[in-house]
Amino acid sequence: MERLRLQTNDAPFYKKESEGMKRRNRWFLLGLVPFVVMIVLFQLAPILSMVTGSISQGNGSGFTLDYYSRIIHSEFYLKAIKNSLLISIFSSVIGIAAGLICAYSITRFSPKMRDRLLMLSNMTSNFAGVPLAFAYIILLGSNGVFTLLFKQWGWSVFADFNLYSWTGLVLVYVYFQIPLALLLLYPSFYGIREQWKEAASLLGASKWQFWRTIGLPILTPAVFGTLGILFANGMGAYATAYALVGGNYNLLAVRIGSLVAGDVVNEPQLGNALAVILALSTLLAVYLNHKMTQRSKMLQSGFTTKNTRSLRIFPKLKSSAVKEEL
Amino acid sequence: METHRKKASWGHRSLMLLLMVYLLLPLLATLIYAFAKEWQATILPESWTLSWFKEMLQDVRFMEALWTSLYLCIISVALSLAVMLPAVFIITVYLPKLESFMKGVVVLPYAVPGVVAAVGLIRAYSSGPIPIAGTAYILIGAYFIIILPYMYQGIRNSLLTVSAVELVNSAEMLGASRLKAFITVIMPNIWPGIVTSTLLSFSVLFGEFVLTNMLVGGHIQTIQVYLYQRVNENGHLASAIAISYFLFILVLSMILMKLGKKVNKGISG
Amino acid sequence: MKPYLRLESIRKQFGDTPVLNNVNLDIREGELVTLLGPSGCGKSTLLRCIAGLTDLDGGHILLDSKDIVNLPPRSREIGMVFQSYALFPNLSVRENIEYGMKMRGASKEARRKRSAELLELIDLGEKRDAYPQQLSGGQQQRVALARSLAVKPKVLLLDEPLSALDAKIRKNLRSEIREIQKKFNITTIFVTHDQEEALTLSDRVCLMNKGSIVQQGTPEELYTTPRTEFVAQFMGSYNVLTRPEVLQLFGKANGDGDSFAIRPEALLLVGADTLSEASREDKQIVEGTVHSISILGNIIRYTIDAAGVRLIVDALNDGRSLRIREQSLVNLALDRSQLLQLEKEGV
Predict the structure, then answer these.
(1) Are C95 and C112 in contact, with CB atoms under 8 Å apart?
(2) Which of B30, B149, B246 faces A319 most closely, judged by CB atoms?
(3) For residue A24, is pLDDT > 60?
(4) Would the pLDDT of A299 be above 70?
(5) d(Cα C54, Cα B3) in Å, to the nearest integer?
(6) Which DSSP helix (H) or strand (E) runs through B38?
(7) Which residue of A has its CA nearest to C53?
(8) If you ran DSSP here, which 8-state letter would residue C34 be given?
(9) What pTM did the predictor assign?
(10) How confident is the model at residue A60, as a pLDDT?
(11) CA-based nearest distance C328→chain B, Å
(12) C68, C74, C140, C141: which to substitute to probe chain A, counting the most A Cβ within 10 Å?
């Protein structure tokens, strides 16, 4: 009885306190309002609008899957999807192979030299889109410096090369994939600790055996994760292709652009449906990256503090590299 | 125990040299083209000139585009700072439960390509209650989303590195209000990190082409849109513009690098 | 007897800094030798030189009468356990243990048999399919030990294997390591900076300083007869006294050295009741003031100012000294026979 009364006496006091807390909380939550408004207006609403647009009839009402079925039955759009997938896969696989070797190489340099090399690659990864396409036109376009030089020297190997074709596009895509792969991959090499190599060598493993049994398996998640980012980067690349071949090469991103904002045909609903397909593919790739990053973190949980610091800079580099094509 | 790393071997050096040549060649070509009077079928141009740069500087459209780019970027970054600083602060310090949700929101701009975002924005705002398609407003909104990841990461990282939660708690225990704690204790400590992400966002927006061209290409000319149009008219002039743009980015990223080092030093020291 | 492992004038420098100056050391088969010393004394470098992970600038390493200096680490038949375990994160416990045998081309049956034995030995049979990240630090270190033993190395090197662990686990694992070492009779070199660890674990202790072995011997020898001031300071909290200080306390000094040492437990606090008894035993009685008291478990450590000298005095924490407070006046019984004469440094 006594205890009960005590409790009831205490209760209002606590209640008052927590109400006070709540009131304070509500006030500073106002700081979140502009953020929420911006996100809803410019991130959620557009995505929602695009998705609904792709499944509603031209006049804006009524459900239809007509646009998707048109895409599936159109050789033209299927070809665009196929081209985009192929060029993304090709350029990201080549990019990752080159990036992997270069990333390993870069960790063999002194930190000072390494930072310089990284800055240069980071810098060139800013060199994308219109200026990049233009630089390649100068070098390898139909009147490009190298094109003319090769012709003059009679190097017939390059005679068939056409910058505005599939091979040309792959070449340019690879150019912006390599620095990105390098920047994303090199921190994982620091996750491979020197002592693992030493332990393996004492246990009788050769250098090659170490990489086969320990090094590469540890890197695998990071490689697949990066592959996801590169793939998404390739799928979404618009500026480079647009500046290089305009509407002449059939790519998904270019098709979407011309359907929605082009001058010739203007069929936004179909563009919506294609955009949804494109977004699904990149979302999937980024999700793969997310999963792989988790795995990679688990494998490399024994980081030294030095390595975590270099990781801290990593999202920065990553972001500046990813942006211009996405 | 310190182990002395040997100098990089011959193989690694030549590989890196090859990579750098490969990466820098297009840049170099642009640079030479910008200073070349005529460049055909020779390794280096036969005559040089500064006239393309002169022409660029005398071009009213270029100056206008530069100005447009600058003010659009400044407005967007400023808006983002004003919105993101309190939001990230509140979430990191008081509502850490929302962090995983935030990460999802923030990663979306990575996952959704510019073309797709443009499609959505055009459909959402070409009619309906807020018809702002084709105006600067829609572009600023899009820019806000583009730099969302950088601003979030930058602000959050600096908050975490200065242990904002502990700082705020001690300030509050010493009698400061939350707003006051934020302004007097947190802001002065995180500004180097903020400057870094601001500059980074700025350089990102300065190079933006896809959304700008698709959303407002016909009405508003930023430096990238202008460059695109010039590419088809006069290659040399376009090179001059590209090189100037690139120099600007270079300076920005050097400042970024220096700042990044300073910030890191501040943390470890 | 012929040494099993012989280090002959080992020299190493990093840049211009010499790290190892002409180190010589003979180790018998089955012996456990500790390299003890402060950080930066070169003990880990010496270990890495033996393993072949760091190149020598000069000297020879003879293992079982064969010079192994020019062999790569993987041909040296030496096992090593690292401070940070260095377990392969992508392999399970069993795969980690079997790694060395696999690299040497052992059959699957042989590997399974050996790993099962070792898993039993380290008592981690149930964890054989777990990954290193899922184990505690102590368990990881036991796996690392098993991994290096699996290939039956001629010499086992342990590089501060316990310093990343909690005090309690450290003590358990310490005796476990010693047991396993004795069981396999494996020649072992153990690097540590913890003198207690070195004293409890080893057959022989080599105390290193600035790239040289300054004194070696059994734990008893090193503890009871430090030869230099450095050894005296490092092995226990010896009171190191100059000649004038000794004269002040004892009246006279034995020998003609300039530097002397006396162990803190050789100084006795005596109450008034036992005072006469103590002086009868030919001990010097000095009066002092207690400056500070700290309790180290079963020992109470006093710092006492006596005759102008600050002394460290250890007494058993048996409840008898409760009356003593800071600033108390106490009597100290000094036994001159416990006074050790020290050599000059660097001799």
Answers:
(1) no
(2) B149
(3) no
(4) yes
(5) 8
(6) strand B36-38
(7) A198
(8) E
(9) 0.80
(10) 63
(11) 42
(12) C74
